[in-house]
Target: Putative arabinan endo-1,5-alpha-L-arabinosidase
Amino acid sequence: MKRTLFIGMLGLSALMSGYAQQGEGVRKGRIVREPLVHDPVMAKEGDTYYLYSTGHNVSSFSSKDLSEWTIRHGVFSAPPQWAVDSIKGYEGHTWAPDIIYYKGNYHLFYSCSTFGKNTSAIGHAYRKTLNPDSDEPWTDTGAVIVSHSHDNFNAIDPNIVIDEEGNPWMTFGSFWGGIQLVRLTEDLTSTLKPEKLYTICTRQFEGASDVPSRSVNSVEAPFIFKHGGYYYLFVSYDFCCRGLKSDYKVVVGRSTRVTGPYVDKDGRELTRGGGSLVVDSNDEFVAIGHSAAYHFDGKDYFMAHGYSLSEDGVSKLFFREMTWDEEGWPLVSAE
Model:
């Protein structure tokens, strides 16, 4: 999730208001039908779904039916000290998590950064269960990857994908040099050395194209979903975090290889200005974006956040069943 200096006070106020209400809910343990979230991701353990999102120490929810959500405490009892020490200005408001079950553990990835800077880090923690009533703590292993002001990438917005050979990869990135992909070690705690970054989506490029290169590389929030022999790369274009003035939207490209190239319906590469629209604003939400996709119980689902038109731009969960057209492209209803 991009945190830029352009962020409007109206949008920031609405977003923080939502988090404040959510914080009250954590203390009360209340049940909600429309959770206040930003950058949502999900996993299922047994008969329970668990949702994680941006928030203080990572916000969390649980549900038995994908309709009523119980607000849980933050994942961490205190901000990871390594991140507080190394990321100036980070105090526990943790962005854009990802969650995956892999080799006997649930692995949580999270973003530590501050507005408008790429001095950032992606952290990692693991636990055998997602059950919030378990006494088992999350074991934090520290930074997976770090970016500094001299780097042309931003180490936030992680998403983990396991390729057909069983190798773990992490895609990430926001603005700067665009969306990156890097191979992880088998324990998921660090990047494989020597580190090699693949740029798999950027809106800034050289050479002729029927789509003009953008002066600002407004792309972030990657998520890779495997379906029918393809890897589908969902990314968010344009700007979030301005409340009702946001213009986020989700586009997609696909590839037979996890490293790309990813192309859209018209054959344009996502590194050359491509991207087929999946979802945009509608009559209920402005700027639907920062998406994730899952296969649960025989169905595919698409989730994101959107700024509620009826509630002054509060950020809420957008959750829909995802189907596929005859050519194998994802379809997500705005209704």
Observations:
- The mean pLDDT is 91.
